TrEMBL record:
InterPro entries: Glyco_trans_51, Glycosyltr_51/Transpeptidase, Lysozyme-like_dom_sf, PBP_transglycosylase. This is Glycosyl transferase family 51 domain-containing protein. Gene3D superfamilies: Biosynthetic peptidoglycan transglycosylase-like. Keywords: Transferase. Residues 68-152 form the Glycosyl transferase family domain.
């Protein structure tokens, strides 16, 4: 009986030591997860409640008194046309340039996110995983910041960092 109690005591002591050791090994991962969640919440709370979309700058023209065009000065030289005036094949082509599988995955691309995560983990480079929706939001935020004259916020809206991957065309 004493032998059984001795073995039971050794088993309990070993279980306690291994439990503490296991908890000590898992604690950093739990802490890192909690910190990541905290930062994600702070990032989310920092986003604007409403995304204000300002009208796009369009082509400017300087006219003579007779109505003829003298010059077309521009920072941004665009002519906005309604979507109905753009051929459906061109609409699909423009989307396909950025993301050929957009209509398959909708707004979130799990395959692209996994590819970027693996690539960023394995190599020192930063792969983009942002969706067209994310790119659109970044460009709207950049445009709003530029209209306010805030070049730092405009650069931040489309910056590449470890937490917010973008593609090369997002800032163009």
């Amino acid at each position: 009986m004493a032998n059984v109690l001795s073995l039971l005591g050794a088993f309990v002591a070993t279980a306690v030591v291994l439990g503490l050791l296991g908890a000590g090994l898992v604690l950093p991962a739990v802490g890192a997860s909690g910190q990541a969640a905290k930062q994600s919440v702070a990032l989310f709370e920092g986003l604007p409640g409403e995304l204000e979309v300002n009208p796009l700058n369009q082509q400017s023209r300087i006219l003579a008194t007779d109505g003829s065009v003298i010059a077309t000065p521009y920072d941004e030289n665009r002519i906005v046309v309604p979507l109905s005036k753009i051929a459906p094949i061109m609409q699909k082509a423009q989307v396909a340039i950025e993301d050929k599988r957009f209509y398959e995955h909708g707004g979130v691309d799990p395959q692209g996110l996994a590819r970027a995560l693996v690539s960023n983990t394995v190599s020192g480079s930063t792969q983009g995983a942002s969706t067209l929706t994310q790119q659109y939001v970044k460009v709207v935020l950049q445009d709003a910041a530029l209209k306010r004259g805030d070049k730092e916020a405009a650069a931040s809206a489309v910056s590449r960092s470890g937490t917010e991957d973008t593609c090369a065309s997002c800032s163009s």
